[in-house]
Amino acid sequence: MEFETLVQSRRSVRGFKTEPVPRTVIEAIIESAKRAPSSMNTQPWHVHVLTGSPLEEVRRRNMEEMVGGAKVKRDIISHGEYQGVHRSRQVDIAKKLFGAMGIARDDKPMRQDWVLRGFRQFDAPVSLVLTYDRVLDPGAVCHFDLGALCYGIVLAAWDRGLGSVINGQGIMRSDIVREVAKIPEDEVIMTCVALGYPDDGFAANAVRSDREANDDFVRFIGFAD
């Protein structure tokens, strides 16, 4: 698939089929994605691929802890709640998703169920937990590298007929993920990518988020008119 078409067509998938994803397909995805740019070729990333009973344990315990009122325990520093324009964009996509799913504003049980889906990594059959070497903290540069790898993964997956959603809710309790996946202490858990074959009958999968016009965030300096 042409790159521009691939980027334009890709979307976040929040409803997956239960069909398992072959390990060979995941290996091919990572083989492509690891060509992502990396600062001075440091390649600070690690990928822990979970499926089956280990993934079920992670999502069950993550959901139970968060529903039970446990505090978020992520390895990376969070910005906290969004405010201003960032909050507005967050609300806009939530409205689109709830509208597609027929979830009314005052339907608290269904809205809560949607939140729980995030904690369960949207019930995807595979989760790729992305980490980086702790020795590189504070890690703005390696965070950038990991983001490049992450985007490479979602594009390579889409090119092979797989959907994905980059899902911070799935690692809200990073201590549980570390324990179950046996992730070494010298790696920082940054995020995860829920992966699987899209369920085309799941209404939210058709939702596409808006993007600002280029004029709102791009400046050209030194170009002739």
TrEMBL record:
Signal peptide: none annotated. GO terms for molecular function: oxidoreductase activity. It comes from the Bacteria. Coiled coil: none annotated. Keywords: Oxidoreductase. InterPro entries: Nitroreductase (IPR029479), Nitroreductase-like (IPR000415). Residues 8-197 form the Nitroreductase domain. The keyword Oxidoreductase applies. Belongs to the nitroreductase family. PANTHER family: NAD(P)H NITROREDUCTASE YDGI-RELATED, NADH DEHYDROGENASE_NAD(P)H NITROREDUCTASE XCC3605-RELATED. This is Nitroreductase. It comes from Bradyrhizobium nanningense. The lineage of its organism: Bacteria, Pseudomonadati, Pseudomonadota, Alphaproteobacteria, Hyphomicrobiales.
